[in-house]
Queue: 2 jobs
Job 1
Amino acid sequence: IAESRTSTEALAQLGDKVLLSAIVLSAVVSVALGLSFVDSGLAITATVLLLGLAFGVFAVARYTVLSRFVLAFVLVSFVALHIQLARGMEEMHFGVFVSLALFLTYRDWRVIVFGAVLYAIHHVVFDRLQAAGFGLYCITEPNFGRVVIHSVYVVIQSGVQSIMAINMAGAGREGDELRVLVAQVNRENTIDLNVHEIPTTTRGGTMLRETLARMDAAVAAV
């Protein structure tokens, strides 16, 4: 359906632009943290690499499924970098929940779950490496119990957002189908009730198509 494709592409464009803006802001924060915590080498190197990955993918595969997953990975990586540069400062963990909220822009539950899984892996791995003395940070002091609590909150938020994304995507598809049906009926200087060839998958779209089909049959009989 042409209208549906246009709507889907608009969402993909909005999501990529929102995440790219968040990535640029995260890059600025990373450099500032690096200078504040005397770790500018890591901050600048990681920032350049992550920005290169984000803008490289955006240049060659913008508004695609690939771009949304890569941009999500880059944003998650920046949040992990902020935590590392701030030596596990708890305030930096708010970036986890902000980024998960931004992923909802795509109305794609897969991106939300992908981000949540990345954060869970990061928290567990960095906490254990921090406990082993590798100089990595998840929180200020290694504590697996606290990491589990953080992960539970991430699971709850990502679960709720995934349900919201599925419902929002379904409502969007239904709206697309209704617009296509109305455009088919409302022709210039005439009305065309023949919508038999218009495909529908949502409940609202199917009900309207069947109603118009019955009206078409009634008019033809008269």
Note: The first strand starts at residue 186 and ends at 187.
Job 2
Amino acid sequence: MDTRRVLLDAKGLTKTYRVGGHKLEVLKGVDMQVREGEILAILGTSGCGKSTLLHVLGWLDSADEGRIVFDGTDRSTLGASERAHLRNSVMGFVFQFYHLLPELTALENVLMPSMIQHGPLAWRKQKKVTTQRAQALLALVGLTERSTHRPRELSGGERQRVAIARALQNQPRFLFCDEPTGNLDGATAEDVRRLLWGLNEKQGQTMVIVTHDAK
């Protein structure tokens, strides 16, 4: 019996879209739990609702019905600003297409969650500590020498590693990954998979990973 604490508890999640006047049921009463330190993979073909489920679980989108409790906090009890603050503080996100800001360096991209969390004025007091953490994360993903490069100067695998470092900047309790290797070639995808699994093995990082790849 797994005695680890339940960190994410979802019950009865439904989500329906209207397409061309027709209803498209994407989520149909989904129940799931994720325990602290666990990796949970959501497998399925394109268009089956994997990303929708991930976005709902990570509070980026809302379910039509159902309940989500994260670490004892029921999503329905929070206002929009409270949800945004909690999401930025304790959740990290990695997407298939990186979503790095093109005008910023790798280091500046990694620093963005800290700047958002603290706000421009308060962040100045935290700048030294948060910059040291960002540099340490870039070292963790093997990009110390690329910290001053902008996204256009990085390969796809390097961009994804920057995105992973950025997702870890605020020391999230939970990491959500939406097809993190879907835009990479085979060898680079394997490098990213090893990096993610290493985070779980060495740091106990809790993750939900959406993928169509059973590897």
Note: DSSP finds six helices and eight strands in the chain.
